[in-house]
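Support request, please re-run this one:
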Amino acid sequence: ALCIALLQAATALVSPRFALRRTPPLRSTTAAYERERTPVFNFDAAPEATAALWERIDDVVMGGVSSSKIVVGDGGAEWRGIVRTDGGGFCGTRTAALDAPLDLSKADGVYVDAILTSDADVARRAWKLTLRTAASRSEIVYSAEWAPRGPDGVGGPTFVPFSDFKLVRGPRIVEGAPPLNATQCASVYGFGLTLSRFGAASVNMTEVENFRDGPFAVKLNAVGVYGDQKVDVPAIGKNVQESKPNSAGRPTIKNNGLILGLALTVLRPIASLVFSEEGRRRRQARRMLIKRGCKSDWAARVYGQRVVKRMRGLGAGAARLEGLREFAKDAAAYALSFPLRLAFRAIFGTVRLIRRLR
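Re-run finished. Output below.
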């Protein structure tokens, strides 16, 4: 009894940030199986078209270097990536801005049918499912926990009732906000899946004990809703002017005149190359590798290509071609940004000179 009391006292003193995370119970119950399931995003039936409706939302938004993407191959759609804890610690994928909200008010909750194929460490990561009930693309969403099956495929989908979803801002819960209900799901603007080192949303962020970073792969079968009856889900399209989809594509240009249209046509690819998020992530990753022992920028590039080769399953020739393509893009971006850097230096130099003269 004395040992138990001491253990309870020690547990109470542990900081919430490092508190142990309890793995949420899977809701693959017999009762849930007997409910009607409506796949909203059926990756098994149409992997390419469904994957094109999703986009990545990794920790680069907070200065991290993690990356992920939904890849379609012979085995269907797979969410692959590498989670790094430097500056962040999560990978995410969410639906692109839809052309119209979905009415899911007749459902009772959301189900996710997915299998972790890269390893068996499901419990060493936090898995989050989000619903967006507002037209904005802000970080305020409803979030709940879920978990994929292990690589043996034993079990079934995870069923999450709407009442499990809590309003969050990033990894923190919005205090005082009621849980989600079916009425609020009359207008659903998006779904999202996240793998994170931060546990369930709370007032204070909690970290997953013994979090497993590095490569991961999740086979996506379906994301949908369940309830007493089937839900009528119309054909889903994306709003191309509001989205940056997971697959290649360009938003349409709304011409306000011939000159403006031509200028945008010329400047858009140049701006996307010079201010590329992908290029910024690669530069940040190379700097991190140099700090960890790579002797030069080129050595960091070579090491990075080995990681990409292993993650994507590329052959030696394809990996070299990919490396040369990225080097060419970085060189072109440097050359195009050189006049801009000179211009900024001239401007800031002039400002400093004026301040000294005053």
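The radius of gyration is 23 Å. Helices lie at 2-12, 30-33, 47-51, 258-274, 277-291, 297-312, 316-357.
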